[in-house]
Specification:
Layout (H helix, E strand, L loop, with lengths): L8 E3 L9 H16 L5 E6 L6 H21 L7 E7 L10 H7 L1 E6 L1
Helix pairs in contact: 1-2
């Protein structure tokens, strides 16, 4: 049986919803775990840093969540098991300013529901 991945966060570059190789590996591990646990459903939560308008960040957060969802589906997870939601800039991990902090806030989290 596959072990639950140690991380559920996929990080993004500034102003991007593109999945990099590290993110694809995390999503692949989660897909393997989900396929081994067919009763589990997840929500992908899209998050952004504080730059940009509230509306822009909600839209970008949704793009990020959908990007993660699409890779889960491409890895064989049923679409009925994966929802998305955007929190935009509303749930920061780091509340300081600067790139090191902002980078922590640009993520899509896979959470059990």
């Amino acid at each position: 049986m596959a072990a639950k991945p140690s991380t559920n966060a996929v990080y993004f570059a500034f102003d991007s919803a593109k999945i990099d190789s590290a993110g694809a590996a995390i999503i692949g591990e989660y897909a393997t775990w989900l396929k081994a646990n067919p009763d589990v459903k997840v929500t992908v939560e899209g998050n952004c840093d504080e730059r940009g308008s509230r509306e822009y960040n909600l839209a970008l957060g949704e793009e990020r969540a959908k990007s993660v969802r699409n890779v889960l589906l491409a890895n064989g997870v049923a679409d009925t098991r994966v929802n998305t939601v955007s929190f935009g800039e509303e749930r920061p991990v780091c509340t300081r300013s600067g790139e090191a902090c902002w980078a922590q806030n640009r993520h899509g989290d896979i959470v059990n529901r």
